Amino acid sequence: MEHPVIDFHIHVPCPEVWYPGQVELARELNEALLGKCHLFGNPGYLSSYLAKEGVDYAVIMAEESIKVTGLVCNEFVIDVCAGAGGHLFAFVGLEPVPSPDMATHLLRLAESAWVKGVKLLPSYQHFTPDDPAMYPLYELAEARGLLMTFHTGSSVFPGTMEELANPLLLEPVARDFPGLNLLLAHSGRKHWYREAERMAREYPNVYLEISGLPPKRLPQYFPRLSELAGKMVFGSDLPMVPSLRENIAAVRQVFGEAPAREVLWENGARLLGLEDSRPDDTTDPPGELRP
Fold it and tell me: What angle do CA 95, 96, 98 make, to 5 degrees?
């Protein structure tokens, strides 16, 4: 049966504020898209592009990573989402973390209806997830019903402290904040697939988010993949992916119809509060896609 698709991990391509390593990787993986990067800050263009690629809803990541990748500011991402007619949602970033005023900062950002979560990158921002100084932030996110995505797994960018990207470092957070839903971006990529899977199996509030992973290789990374469909959400990491449409097709091929529906739609819809949405309920994205 036809169903919407949610992409839980999209970056607006912003080479003017990215550091060189991120620009080079985006050019290597999707040079055509990077050549049109000046258009993607337009909510109508971005929404229409995603719709043509088969994505109905998307989470747009702000990224405040001064030490490693650059600064895609929260206000810019929120404005893009606000102009997209209800199809895009913002996950805000906080840098530096931890800091005494980060919870206050989040409280201000969360006044926007388009803010649905927080994106944190321990290996880029150089903090441990279970640092007690982070707990006021988690408490606020839990109380406000915000989601929290953590970068886990490998990274090629200079300055990364990869040892801080082990999913098991999030175990105290998952245990101490059972009402805070945690998404493991990249699902422990390269080094920690087993650890990421254990976290998702053991904690009801932990989900595997598969951005940056070729879907056809998921059975290799997760041999018991069929058992994980209920705890996995789709993400692409656009523009760091050659083809969004091909990734969606590969998810359907690897999982089969019913489990793929969980990964591409049902799990994410539940997390974002979109369970009652249907393809014919959605409004048309604003604007048109023009080359």
Answer: 115
Across the strands, what pairs with 14?
none
Q: Is residue 281 part of a domain?
A: no
With CA atoms as reference, report the closest residue to 61 among 127, 15, 9.
9
pLDDT in tens, 60-95: 999 888 887 878 889 999 999 999 989 999 999 998
Closest CA to 148 of 124, 119, 122: 119
Q: How many CA atoms lie within 13 A of 7 on its CB side?
A: 29
Residue owning tokens 């990158």: 121
Q: Which residue segment(s) compose the domain that 213 sits in?
A: 6-274
**Side chain identity at residue 145, one-letter code:** G
Q: Does 81 map to a domain? A: yes
The structure tokens listed for 155 are 């990274």
Contact 174, 203 (CB under 8 A): yes
Whether this prediction's pTM lies above 0.85 is answered by yes
Tell me: the pLDDT tens digits for 86-103?
Answer: 999 999 999 889 999 999
Please tell me the distance from the alpha carbon of residue 232 to that of residue 268, in angstroms, as a whole number. 8
Q: Is residue 176 part of a domain?
A: yes
Per the CB < 8 A criterion, the answer to whether 201 and 231 are in contact is yes
Q: What is the dihedral of CA 71, 240, 119, 188, to 10 degrees?
A: -130
CA–CA distance, 119 with 146 (Å, rounded to integer): 11
Strand partners, 92: 118
At 78, the amino acid letter reads: I
Length of the chain equals: 291
Residue 20: closest CA among 123, 153, 158, 124: 158
